[in-house]
Amino acid sequence: MTAIILLVEDNLDDVKLTRRAFSEIKVGNQIIEAHDGVTALDYLFGTGQYAGHDLADTPAVIFLDLKLPKMDGLEVLRRIRGDPRTALLPVVVLTTSDEEQDRIMSYRLGANSYVRKPVDFDQFIDSARQLGLYWLLINQPPPKLPHAT
Amino acid sequence: MSDDPDITRQLRRELDETRLRLAEAEETLDAIRNGEVDGLMVAGPNGQQVFTLQGAQEPYRMLIEQMSEGALTLSRDGFILYANPSFARMLQLPTGRVIGAVLRDFLSVEDQPAITGLIETALSGAGSGEVSIRAALGSPVVLRLDLRPVQLGAETVLCAVATDITAEKQRERGLLRQAELLEASVAQRTADLAASRIAALNLMEEAVEGSKAIDQANRELMREITERKRAEATVRQLNVELEQRVAERTAALDASNTELEAFSYSVSHDLRAPLRSIDGFSRIVMDDYHDKLDAEGRDSLTRIRTAARQMGRLIDDLLKLARVSRAALHRERVDLSALARAVVAELQESEPGRVADVVVQGDLMALGDPTLLRVALDNLLGNAWKFTGKRDAAHIVFGAQQQDGETTYFVRDDGAGYDPTYADKLFGAFQRLHSTAEFPGTGIGLATVQRIIRRHGGRIWAEGQVNLGATFFFTLGVSERAEELEAT
């Protein structure tokens, strides 16, 4: 079973480009899309539309955009870190924002990494490659915690 | 005894007379004894004689003779039958001249008529009055006479006591005089008082007038004060309004700043994403449909990508400019030489193939915000680097010189330069003096540098010629201080 990548991104163009980038660098992992924060949390905690979902399927890494509808990225991050079931999951903030306040808050709330999405697609591809390489191959994910079912 | 009845009758008559005389004599003796009589008129061989009794009368006589009061006896007609030495002294005459004289004659002319009335009154019971004696010498003497009727044998005479009241009278006169004077003085005083009352009344009137005037003045003063207070109140009100306006303006500025931040934030996210899509999908089309595209098609897509990237750069530069305006200025000692060297190193790294001779003057210290100064040098040295890009060997100098007591920094290059005709456009935002084809750029760099320099209180200007390079000069407003710092 390959590691799951949870991509929390509302911009469908960006989703497509990201999938394209990962496919170009031959990242074969399953990519789960969540187009807003609520859906992402539903997936992680087995609620809402993902009720009954096996929580053993924790993602190896979460790529989280900050600018999301309904619940913004930083709130999602807070909730992920707030729950013991997901507190240790690696979260990479992947955003267009270069604003210092976003960076500070992201790290303060416990993000593992902060990556700025470049406008230039070539650079974007390059970034995706490096991210994929690092988080899926080099980085050791946290041990899976026993779940109360 | 004879038997003559006439002799017997005569003898009886003589006996009766003798008894009668004896009774009278006994009465007289009794009277003498009792002090009722002190003189006798006796018919003698020489006519009637007055005999005064000495023995029993002696004490009384002594008293009368010696007393200081005057004593006299007056007949009904006003003859002085007796006068004691004191009375004579009062008249300033010897006693002999007084006794037997008429009292009236001794009195002053004014009092002479009155004495008769006084005697009459006295005869009926008692009388007293004041008479003034015609003075023999010197001042008139005033006597007080107290008269009493007395029976002297068959006669009624008046006994009088005279008291010298001259002194008293004088005193009286004196007192009267004093009283008169006093009255006069009182009258005067009253008159004076009246006068001063009038004067006081006048004064009061004046005072009232004066106080009316004062009142008037007061009222006017009050009016002035009220006006003044009103003016003050108005000024205060205006001040309050001014402060309010300032507060409002500050709030508006704060609000606008916040909006600006929100705008920047939004720009960060929202403007970049579509650019990425444009660039990304253009690239994908180029890759996936490469063989289906002719040169024209490829060219179009390339232009699309270039445009997208340019817009991305514009956004980045705009955001930088905005940040420069917002950021707080923290002045500290900055080593501009080191900063410049770091920038040059980065530039060299980005284009390793470039041959460039960059001279950075050493130990250029300044007092300013390191972050903002870094951005300024990024732009200035970056420009120098860019505009010397077409030269085989670029020459760039970063240094400083003293001009009129202040330190002027400069970045000089021997690159493409610029047409001084358009010098006023040099620092305008989005203003470019070259096309993007010649040299890439957004036209915001110099505007950003100018804003940074201005915020430091300095000035920036340039000199240049086409193809002869350009020099950008700037001051930081506190160069003297930097020198002071250096000295410490």
Beta fraction of chain A:
15-25%
Helix content of chain B: 55-70%
Q: Please give the oligomerization state of what you see.
A: heterodimer
The number of distinct helices of chain A, counting runs of at least 4 residues, comes to 5
* Measured distance between first and last alpha carbons of chain A: 22 Å
Percent helix of chain A: 25-40%
- Beta-strand percentage range of chain B: 15-25%
Structural class of chain B: alpha+beta
Topology (SSEs and partners):
The complex is a heterodimer of chains A (149) and B (488).
Chain A: E1 4-8, H1 12-24, E2 30-34, H2 37-45, E3 61-64, H3 73-82, E4 91-95, H4 100-108, E5 113-116, H5 121-138
Helix pairs in contact in A: 1-5, 2-3
Chain B: H1 5-34, E1 39-44, E2 47-52, H2 58-66, E3 70-74, E4 80-83, H3 85-91, H4 95-98, H5 103-106, H6 112-124, E5 127-133, E6 141-152, E7 155-164, H7 166-288, H8 295-326, E8 332-335, H9 336-350, E9 356-360, E10 365-368, H10 370-387, E11 394-403, E12 406-413, H11 445-455, E13 460-464, E14 470-474, H12 479-487
Parallel strand pairs in B: 9-11
Antiparallel strand pairs in B: 1-2, 3-4, 3-7, 5-6, 6-7, 8-10, 11-12, 12-14, 13-14
Q: Any descriptors?
A:
heterodimer, A: 149 residues, alpha/beta, five-stranded parallel beta sheet, 5 strands, B: 488 residues, alpha+beta, five-stranded antiparallel beta sheet, 56% helix, rod-shaped
